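Input structure tokens:
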């Protein structure tokens, strides 16, 4: 009797594999953006920490985790080429369990969003729709190197920032808050484009028209960095116009640090894109919080 004949296929997911599926490393951007929104609202965080923490948990582990599970389920054929060790193609999450986990987390997202009031619930609905529109057929916006990263940038940075401010205010945030949130969401398009480098071969084979696939790594990297830099340049200009000069200078220093890191990225975009996402992006998100405190000063 062969070994294969006596080993039964896995029926239930490995607990560790379920954690890997929802990718804790991806939770930071929306958690950070939500906190930036809370700071920018001008409402004191002391006394409001329960709702702030609940919103951060919703933005990161729940909604972002759900989006990762949905994406991995819809990408299981691509991942079998790019990253066959991932939980679904490797069989550690067998059968349709990947889909069931994504659907259960969708329901959990909406339930927790309801606890944050109308603004929090409305934003959660938008986030859930965006997650499935990005990954699932027939919409599957990730097939586009323009619409896909744009939607993720809005969902990871703009929407949580807006929500963090709106939940604390109980109303729509000020114009200045919305503009800065949108600018950082626009800049995040570049971050998401660099993130597409790791799936280059599988995307080519499965018709995902990411910018690295369509334009090549060198051009895609330059576009990504230009988008990030221009968005921050507008933020800096607005901070100067609004009289927040010290904050503007701090964001300039962080942008200069990014430009230095970009120089290394351009030497070999395919090789250094993951490195840049782990280093240069830190300067980007630090600028987000500095801008949030500037908006707080304007409140």
């Amino acid at each position: 009797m062969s070994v294969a004949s006596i080993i039964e296929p896995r029926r239930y997911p490995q607990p560790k594999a379920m954690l890997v599926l929802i990718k804790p490393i991806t939770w930071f951007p929306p958690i950070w953006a939500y906190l930036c929104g809370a700071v920018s609202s001008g409402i004191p965080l002391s006394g409001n920490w329960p709702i702030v923490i609940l919103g951060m948990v919703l933005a990161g582990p729940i909604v972002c985790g759900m989006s990762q599970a949905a994406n991995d389920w819809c990408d299981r054929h691509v991942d079998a080429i790019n990253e066959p060790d991932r939980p679904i193609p490797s069989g550690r999450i067998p059968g349709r369990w990947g889909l069931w986990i994504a659907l259960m987390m969708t329901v959990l997202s909406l339930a927790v969003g309801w606890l944050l009031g109308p603004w929090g619930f409305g934003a959660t609905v938008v986030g859930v729709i965006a997650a499935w529109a990005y990954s699932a057929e027939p919409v599957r916006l990730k097939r586009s190197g323009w619409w896909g990263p744009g939607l993720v940038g809005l969902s990871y940075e703009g929407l949580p920032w807006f929500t963090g401010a709106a939940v604390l205010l109980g109303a729509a945030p000020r114009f200045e808050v919305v503009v800065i949130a949108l600018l950082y969401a626009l800049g995040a398009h570049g971050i998401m484009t660099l993130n597409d480098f790791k799936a280059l071969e599988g995307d080519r084979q499965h018709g995902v028209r990411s910018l690295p696939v369509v334009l090549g790594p060198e051009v895609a990297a330059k576009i990504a960095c230009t988008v990030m830099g221009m968005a921050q340049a507008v933020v800096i200009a607005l901070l100067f116009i609004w009289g927040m000069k010290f904050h503007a200078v701090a964001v300039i220093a962080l942008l200069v640090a990014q430009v230095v890191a970009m120089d290394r990225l351009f030497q070999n975009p395919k090789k250094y894109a993951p490195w840049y996402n782990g280093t240069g992006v830190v300067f980007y998100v630090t600028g987000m919080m500095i801008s949030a405190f500037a908006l707080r000063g304007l409140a």
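Residues 1-7 have pLDDT under 50 and may be disordered. DSSP finds 15 helices and no strands in the chain.
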